[in-house]
Specification:
Layout lengths: L1 H7 L1 H7 L3 H18 L8 H29 L8
Length: 82
């Protein structure tokens, strides 16, 4: 759901994902891309791409921290070479 929101309303998607500075940067990027998009329409996709990449990276970071914490609590998985 957050990916759809990030694609359609990039600054709001970033805000709801807990990234306020990225949301502000994305808002500035939206304004710039609307102005430049009058000449090159493909540029209008840049803010959505930025938001999707930022949301994905944040989710991967959370997932990585959860795995590291599980390994710290329970030890490495069976058969893991030490």
């Amino acid at each position: 759901m957050i990916y759809i929101l990030a694609a359609l309303l990039p600054p709001i998607g970033l805000l709801l994902n807990g990234q306020p500075f990225s949301a502000i940067l994305n808002l500035v990027l939206c304004i710039i891309c609307v102005i430049v998009g009058l000449i090159f329409p493909i540029v209008l996709l840049v803010p959505s791409a930025h938001a999707l990449i930022a949301v994905h990276m944040r989710r991967e970071d959370r997932r990585h921290r959860e795995v590291v914490e599980a390994i710290r609590q329970h030890g490495p998985p069976p058969g893991y070479p030490r």
